[in-house]
C-alpha cells in the first residue's frame, strides 16, 4: 500500500492524531484521492526547513492541553482531483431524477444463476477496473424485459462510486439522452452537450439504447460521444432488449461500435434462481412463505423477475390489509393462477422431447446405445434434467433411456454438474431447455 507522510513538530501532536483522528484522516484521504493510503506521522524538528509550511505557525506554538492543540491537514489534492470531484457532484445533481442511481440495487442483492452469471461477472469486473484499464471498456447487455439489466447498471454505478469516488459516472436512458440533446439544440448549447459527454464523463451508461430507433440526429451525436469516450479509454455500457445486430432503425456504424466490446445476453432465470430471488425478496418484505408456496409461485412466473417481485408485493399487501396468513389457495386466487398453471406435471417424456428439440437429436437416439459425443452429451443433459425437474428415481430414468442401470444415471448427473461449473455454453443450454418446460 502507498503511504502519505505527515511531519509534525512534537510527540504530543503525533500521539493525539494517532489516537483521536487517524481514521478521519484516512477517510478524508480516501475520499479526496480515491484510494487507501497508509498514514505515517513523523516528528520533525520544527526548525528544520523540511517542516511543512502551512502548518508551521500552528506547530510552533506548543499546546498546553489536548483541547488546545490544532493542526492543519494539507493533503494537496491536485486541481484535477478537485475539478473532477466538483464535476461529479454537479453532474450527479443535474442528472434527471428519473435515472438517479438507485443506491439499493447492488451486487449484494443481485441473485446469480446460470442465466445471468456472465453478465454479473463482467459487471463486477468493470466496477473494479473501469475503462481501458480493465478488460471490458465497452459492454452491451441485452435481454427480455425485467431480467436485471438496469439492476446491473445501478450495481456497477454504485460499485464505481465506492471504488473510485472521483469518477464521473453518468447513467441515463436513451430517451433522456435524446431529450438532453434536443434541448441543447434548442438552446444553442450543443458545444456544451458535446463537451460534457466526450470530455467530462468517465463512465457512460445508456439504458434501452434501442429507443434511439429512427432518431438520426441523436444517433449522429451518440456516434461522436462513443468515439470520444472510447478513444479516451473511458467506460461505456449499453443495455437493450435486442442484440446490436437485431435492433432496427439504428445506423450500421453505431451497431458496429456497439459490437466492439463484449455483447452478453441475460436469459430467463431457471427454477433455482427464481426460488432464490423469491426468498431474498420475501425476506426484504418481511414476508414468511412456506416452501410449497415459493415453489408454486416459481413454477407459475418464469419469464420476468419484475413480475416475480410484483407477485410478492401483492401477496404481502393482501396479507397485511386482510390480516391473514398467506396460504396456497390465497396465492392461486390473488395471482390468478389457473389450474393448468398449477397442475401441469412435467414428465420424463416432456423432458426428453424438449432436450431432443434443443440439441436437434431425435428421442430414439437419446434412448439408443449410440455413443457419439453429441448424443452422449444430450442424453446426459436429459438425464440430469429428469432428476432435477421430474424428480424421478435413477432406476426410472435408466429404464426410460434404453434400459440402462442406475449407475449410468448417477454418472450422467455428476458429469453435467461438474461441467456446468466451467462450461458456460452448457449451463445456457440447460437453462434454455428448462425454460421451455
Ligand atoms: N438477478 C436478480 N436478483 C435480484 N433481483 C433482480 C435480479 N434480476 C432482476 N431483479 C429485479 O427485478 C426487477 C426488474 O429488473 P430490471 O429493472 O433491472 O430489469 P430490466 O432488464 O432492466 O428490464 P427492462 O428491460 O424492462 O428495463 C428489479 O427490481 C430488479 O432489482
TrEMBL record:
Keyword Nucleotide-binding applies: yes
One annotated GO biological process: regulation of DNA replication
InterPro entries named in the record: AAA+_ATPase, Chromosome_initiator_DnaA, Chromosome_initiator_DnaA-like, DnaA_C, DnaA_dom, DnaA_N_sf, P-loop_NTPase, Trp_repressor/repl_initiator
Keyword DNA-binding: yes
GO molecular function, a single term: DNA replication origin binding
Pfam family, one: Bac_DnaA_C
Protein residues bound to ATP: 146, 148-150
Region (Domain I, interacts with DnaA modulators): 1-88
Positions of the Chromosomal replication initiator DnaA C-terminal domain: 347-416
Localization terms from the record: Cytoplasm
Domain notes: Domain I is involved in oligomerization and binding regulators, domain II is flexibile and of varying length in different bacteria, domain III forms the AAA+ region, while domain IV binds dsDNA.
Function: Plays an essential role in the initiation and regulation of chromosomal replication. ATP-DnaA binds to the origin of replication (oriC) to initiate formation of the DNA replication initiation complex once per cell cycle. Binds the DnaA box (a 9 base pair repeat at the origin) and separates the double-stranded (ds)DNA. Forms a right-handed helical filament on oriC DNA; dsDNA binds to the exterior of the filament while single-stranded (ss)DNA is stabiized in the filament's interior.
Self-association state and partner proteins as the record states: Oligomerizes as a right-handed, spiral filament on DNA at oriC.
Similarity annotation: Belongs to the DnaA family.
UniProt name for this protein: Chromosomal replication initiator protein DnaA
Organism in which the protein naturally occurs: Halobacteriovorax marinus (strain ATCC BAA-682 / DSM 15412 / SJ)
